[in-house]
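The material for today's practical consists of a large collection of protein records. Backbone structure tokens are a discrete shorthand for how the chain folds in space. An example says more than a description, so a record of this kind follows:
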Amino acid sequence: MPPTNPARRQALTDAAIDLLAASGVHGVTHRAVENAAALPPGTASNYFPSREALLVATARRIVELHHADMDRTARHHHTDTATPPTHASLADRLAALLTDALLTAATTLRTRYRAIYELQLEAVRRPALASALAGLQDSSIGLTADHHGALGLPIPAEAVPTLVTLYGGTLFVLVTTPVDLVNRQLVEPLARAIARGALPDPGGSTTQ
């Protein structure tokens, strides 16, 4: 029967996140993760029978942390949804939300997102990992739409995949930029461009 200690499992995947960001996928082995988590030899293989299983579990842990952050944002930013926002105000509010999210992800949470990009590159060579990441991406698109609705940002469902793609590409650039160069002045124009690119205007073209 597989071990069921969630705290130990979480410690292993959290250690793998740090190793991915610091050393890339090749730095993530069962023994390296055990050492980083200060756990006995053999612990990681008890939870993850293969290295690929460890990588998939780490990807799921990153997505879990990302969704928890989205939940906190939705709880702490109550918006009056009685009056639907205009298209212009929706774009402005979305850009402001994206600016804050990108800044936090590219600075405070940089390790986490560098790790997921390492996994995405490795998935090109690992079909099982690619399949797991694709499933996580699909669930993230649905949860993103739900969270935006809770924040009073009724983004059309068909725009969410574009929004997620533009956000992910922008974040990749930011987490590979020296952290001391990442600031609000850099991020705000990028966030506005994402909002304009993702939201179709009432006339059928992107917002200008």
Summary: Residues 51-76 form the longest helix (26 residues). Residues 56 and 107 are 24 Å apart (CA to CA). The mean pLDDT is 86.
